[in-house]
Amino acid sequence: MQNNYQEYVKLKTRVEVLQHSQRNLLGEDLDPLATSELDQLESQVDKTLKQIRSRKTQVLLDELCDLKRKEQMLQDANRTLKRKLNEADAEAAPPPQLPWQGTGDAMLSDEPPQPDAMLSDEHRQPEHFFQALEGSPSLQPAFHAMDINQLPMPAPGGCYPPAWMA
Predict the structure, then answer these.
(1) CA 134 – CA 142 distance, rounded (Å)
(2) How far apart are alpha carbons 33 and 45 in whole angstroms?
(3) CA-atom Rg of the chain in angstroms
(4) Contact yes or no for 70/90 (Cβ under 8 A)
(5) Residue 118: is it exposed, middle or buried by C-beta count within 10 angstroms (0-12/13-18/19+)?
(6) Residues with Cβ < 8 Å from 132, sequence gap 6 or more?
(7) Distance, CA of 105 to chain centre
(8) What is the DSSP letter of 165?
(9) Is residue 106 packed enough to be buried (19+ CB in 10 Å), middle (13-18) or exposed (0-12)?
(10) Would you say the pTM of this structure is higher than 0.70?
């Protein structure tokens, strides 16, 4: 029983010393320390700071190495995809020409394209497909001349009414 009590006292004392040391490292309770103790504390802080900086540098270098490896992998994948895309483009047939596009020769000449040249035989419409609108005056476009001096005056604060309302 006595042995357990002595062990307890030793551990309690050790905990108090460590707590005091921790407070000193945190910059607390520095007033009672002598110059030599402050120098020793400063050395310990410098040594710890160097270890922290060294570890931080190592972590950053490891991350940089990983990022460079990933960059290289992405560049390789990009090159592969570009090569595949170029191969697919080379293998792809030119797009089919639509019947109204012709061969392109009509586009180069100064003469207007002929309607027959623009349509292939299979898409040609029969002659009677388009019929002139004759005989019905209601279907013919009409334009009525109007004298600008005969326009009605707008209402106060309003606009001119449309001509069809006049």
Answers:
(1) 14
(2) 15
(3) 48
(4) no
(5) middle
(6) none
(7) 43
(8) G
(9) middle
(10) no
- Alpha carbons within 13 angstroms on the beta-carbon side of residue 161 total 10
Checking 101-104 for CB contacts under 8 A at 24+ apart, the result is none
What whole-number distance in Å separates Cα of residue 164 and Cα of residue 144? 10
Please give the structure tokens belonging to residue 16.
Answer: 């108090």
Measure the CA angle with vertex 19, ends 16 and 24; round to 5°: 125
Q: What is the pLDDT along the chain (166 residues), one digit of tens a residue?
A: 889 999 999 999 999 999 999 999 888 989 999 999 999 999 999 999 999 999 999 999 999 999 999 999 999 999 999 999 999 888 876 666 666 666 555 455 555 555 555 555 555 555 555 555 555 555 555 555 555 555 555 555 555 555 555 4
Q: Which two tokens stand for residue 2?
A: 């006595």
Total Cβ atoms within 10 A of residue 24: 19
Closest CA to 114 of 122, 77, 124: 124
- Cβ atoms of 93 and 82 within 8 Å: the answer is no
